[in-house]
Amino acid sequence: MAAMDKILLGHGSGGKLMHALIEEYFSPAFGNKGAGDSAVVDVPSTRIAYTTDSYVVSPLFFPGGNIGDLAVCGTVNDLSVAGAEPLFLTAGFIIEEGFPLSDLKKIIASMAAAAKQAGIAIVAGDTKVVNKGKADGVFINTSGIGSLKGGISISPANILDGDSVIISGELGNHGVAILAERNGLTFDPPIKSDSRPLNSLVKAMYKATDKIRFMRDPTRGGLATTLKEVALESGLCIRIRELSLPVPLPVKGACSLLGLDPLYVANEGILVAVVGPDVADTVVSAMHKHDHGKAASVIGTVDRSAPGMVLLETAAGGSRIIDMLQGEMLPRIC
Amino acid sequence: MAAMDKILLGHGSGGKLMHALIEEYFSPAFGNKGAGDSAVVDVPSTRIAYTTDSYVVSPLFFPGGNIGDLAVCGTVNDLSVAGAEPLFLTAGFIIEEGFPLSDLKKIIASMAAAAKQAGIAIVAGDTKVVNKGKADGVFINTSGIGSLKGGISISPANILDGDSVIISGELGNHGVAILAERNGLTFDPPIKSDSRPLNSLVKAMYKATDKIRFMRDPTRGGLATTLKEVALESGLCIRIRELSLPVPLPVKGACSLLGLDPLYVANEGILVAVVGPDVADTVVSAMHKHDHGKAASVIGTVDRSAPGMVLLETAAGGSRIIDMLQGEMLPRIC
Q1: Which residues contact B247 (CB under 8 A, 6 or more apart)?
Q2: CA-to-CA distance for A106 and B231, rounded, in angstroms?
Q3: CB-CB: which of B92, B126, B328 is closest to A13?
Q4: What percent of chain B has pLDDT over 70?
């Protein structure tokens, strides 16, 4: 009976084994059939945000989370930084033959918990199984839809000369936690992934102001790549102050040990916002009152001096040009 | 420069290589950024159908299609058989390091062509790259949303005693085409996958009647598994006539050679519909006028005789109980 502890090719067949998997594992966690069929859902507005992300993180379990909550939070956050209220997610699993059912159960439970925390529903799903050696444990795709209130517009085109750049929390925790786990390193204090849903933080920000021009979550490629994208897309210059960047000491130490630059390390629980200069302090104060915004701060400003460029004013008083991530520093970080 | 013909880990980094991939490959085909960000879309109704499917078909290229058009058509069809008008799709790619960029280009072109044929837009995307040996070429997830007109309801709960069961086309072509390609077999005449979008066929059916109780596309697990699901979910008995089943001669021959039962072989371009008995002929006539419904026919009826069962009236005059697919006959068929 050992085979019944593991995923078999038949679990992806569409037949009896797949139905049993759905009934025993997915339905109890997600509260619906979770099968390959369409869900019918009602959205409160006809203007919606729509996104998708696949998750291939390695290892599947890491300090602070696993691929399951990462897959839910990541897509919730994509919608949140689009200014939308996340409502519904789908979940598509690609599972390697032989994958332990006990691990699948843990991953599904984490997804359900993250969905509950974010207040969203996983309404449709799909499971495929590939032969042993043709995947790496499990890959998860989540797509998500959220409703967009009239008047809300998040675009680099909205950014104006003089705007303030805000970061909602500490840099580098997710990427360093993954890399440490991958290499069997432990730190004291431990470094945990910051993976978490940001929709309620964004809600608090909108309560404080309607002058949010732009938001993005600095995941793959880190803060540096995100800011460079924003600079290019807006045609403006972004200046950030190194001394303002909230890099926690353990992350600093680990990055120095591992030869990483925290500016390029992936984050999963923070966002960058560009807001009008007159509301920056108000927004940051509102963020400080939220559990996920306690370390929020203004890290820089926007100007017209060097269109498309990101400049880091260093602690030493110099200025460093920040480019996008080149090549790959940390593959399979999400 | 040989490396530039192939996918590198850096193509999934979020950095420069990924931006170049999006700009050179995805944007020209899909007409948008296709990046990991949310798309903002307008839907004509607040009642929408929402679905997801991952595609892991092996081989990636087969007679009649490839993983790209399959991923678009499959999700369009999931929405279509929910009674919805498919509008927007997302596409998530998981690519194995070293995958030829020329193959990726072909796959993307097929997706764009299928999207055009179906009249839908691919509005958001994501690309992840995993190390060589940790995936099998490329896996694609598509999710889709469609608008549902008020009054349209597709549910096994709608099915009534006396209803007619219709199939829209020939059985078995997709599964046999894949298996033949996998095993290096060729048939004369060649057997091609039936992968195609069914949304315009469904539109023609709704023009003919509003008495469509239920539809489903018999993909994994084939017609047998689909009908058994419907019998169980409706609590009614489905009786089909073997002599009415449109199994093309080449598929019959190939199934007999390969030891397959065409009732359990996956299809990607047909649907099963349950309609009121008074409109069955009208619907079938309307389907015959559509390119994708030329082989449509009534294959059986619904009654209360044996709740939850599917009975096949055989050519020999007997009656055979049809169950769901057990185990796995054809892994990675879609």
Answers
A1: B170, B171, B172, B255, B262
A2: 33
A3: B328
A4: 97
Q: Using CA atoms, how far apart are residues A110 and A69, in angstroms rounded to an integer? A: 5
Task: Find residues 95-154 of chain A whose CB sits inside 8 Å of chain B.
Answer: 123-126, 128-131, 133-136, 139, 141, 143, 145-146, 148
**Best interface-test mutation with A: which of B51, B57, B77 has the largest number of A CBs within 10 A?**
B51
The token duo for A25 is 């594992």
The C-alpha atoms of residue A82 and residue B301 are separated, in whole angstroms, by 49
Chain A residues in contact with B136 (beta carbon < 8 A): 130, 134-135
Is B271's Cβ below 8 Å from some Cβ in A?
no
- pTM score: 0.96
Task: Judge: B39–A49 Cβ closer than 8 Å, yes or no.
Answer: yes
Chain centroid to CA A235: how far? 25
Which neighbouring-strand residues pair with B189? none
**DSSP code string of A284-333:** HHHHHTSGGGTT-EEEEEEESSSTT-EEEE-TTS-EEEE-PPPS-SSTT-
Q: What is the pLDDT of residues A117-143, one digit of tens each?
A: 999 999 999 999 999 999 999 999 999
- Residue A48's DSSP bridge partners are A147, B41
Q: By the 8 A CB rule, do B169 and B293 touch?
A: yes
Q: Which residues of B174-202 are buried (b: 16+ CB within 10 A; e: fewer)?
A: bbbbbbbbbeeeebeeebbbbbbbbbbbb
Q: Do A13 and B220 touch (CB under 8 A)?
A: yes
Summarised one tens digit per residue, pLDDT across range B273-290 is 999 999 999 999 999 999
- Whether B265 and B255 have beta carbons less than 8 Å apart is answered as yes
Task: List Cβ neighbours of B317 (8 Å cut-off, separation of 6 or more).
Answer: none
SS3 (DSSP) at A243 = helix
- Enumerate the residues of chain B whose CB falls inside 8 A of the CB of residue A224: none
pLDDT at B189: 86
Q: Helix A249-258 and helix A173-182: axis angle, to 10°?
A: 50
